[in-house]
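ok here's Peptidase MA superfamily protein, seq below lol
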Amino acid sequence: MPSARKKSRKLWTRVLAVLAALLVAALAGVVLAYPSLAATTCPGCYGLIELEGSVYTEDGLSDAQKAQVKRTVAEARTRITDFYGTRTSSPTLLVCMTESCYERIGGGKERGIAVLNRAVMLSPRGVDTVIASHEMSHVELHTRLTSGAEVPQWFDEGLAVVVSDDARYLAPETAEDRGTTDARQPAEDPGTTNDPGTASTPRTASTPRTTNDPGTTDDPRAADDSGTADGRGAVKDPGAADDRCLVPPSGPLPVTLDEWLTAASKDAGTYAKSACQVARWLRDNGGRAGLLSLIERLNAGTPFATLVKAS
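and the structure came out like this:
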C-alpha cells in the first residue's frame, strides 16, 4: 500500500507540473498576442505607476505632465457625466506621454483605444479631452448594457463622437440642440462602480488600430460634395440646416467591427456619417431620455433593429 500511495503522489505531482507549465505557456501566449489586454490587467508589469485612482502613467513625468493627465481625465469624465446625467463606469486608464511607453503596452498608430470596452489606453497624441471621452464613451455605453445586448458599430462610434463633442465630425451645438439632447447640461455628481463590466463588442490588441479611434482618419469635412460649406469649410446636409451633420449618411453604415474597420479605412467620412445618424436620432427621440430608454429596452431583450431604424 505505501508503494501504491507513493506512485499515486508522483502521478499527481507530474499532472500538476504539466498543468502549471500549460498555464504559464497560456499566460505567456496572451501577453505576447494581446499585450494591451495584459497591460490593462497588470499595469505595473509594464512599468506603469498609479497616478490617481484607476489612472496609470509611466514613471518620471514632470509636474506639468501629471497635471495634464489629471486635467484630461477629469474633463473627459465630466463629459460622460454631463451627457448621461450620471457616470456608471470606472475604466482603468493607461496614459502614455511617450511613444515608447505606448508601444510597450501594445499601442499602435491610434491616439487612443478602448480595450474590451472595459479599459482605455491613450497615446501621447491622445491625451486630450475629446479623444479620452470618446474612448470612455464606449466603456460607459457597454457598462450600461448590462444584458450584453449588442449595438451596431456605427451607433457605438457615432454616439462616442456626440458624447465627446468632436468638432471634426459635428457642427457646433446650438441652444436648440442642448435643449433637445440634454448634453453638457448640469448633472448629478458622477457615480462609479467597481466593476466596469465587459463589452458585447470586444476591441482587442489584435484588432487593427488605425481606424479604432477618431484621431487617425483624415478630416471628413470635405468628403461629400452634395451639401454647402459652412463657415468652417465643412459640408453640411442642405436638407437639415437645424442639425449638427457635416456629412450625412449616403447608404448603410457599418454594423460589425470588421465592417467598421474596413469602411473607416476607405472612407474618411465614416465617423462623421455615423455621428450625423446618431445626432439626428437623439434629436428626434428626446436626447438623453431617449437614449436611456433605448438602453433599458435593449437590456430587456428587444433587438436594436426593432428600436432604431437607420436612414
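fwiw The first helix runs from residue 2 to 33. kinda neat tbh
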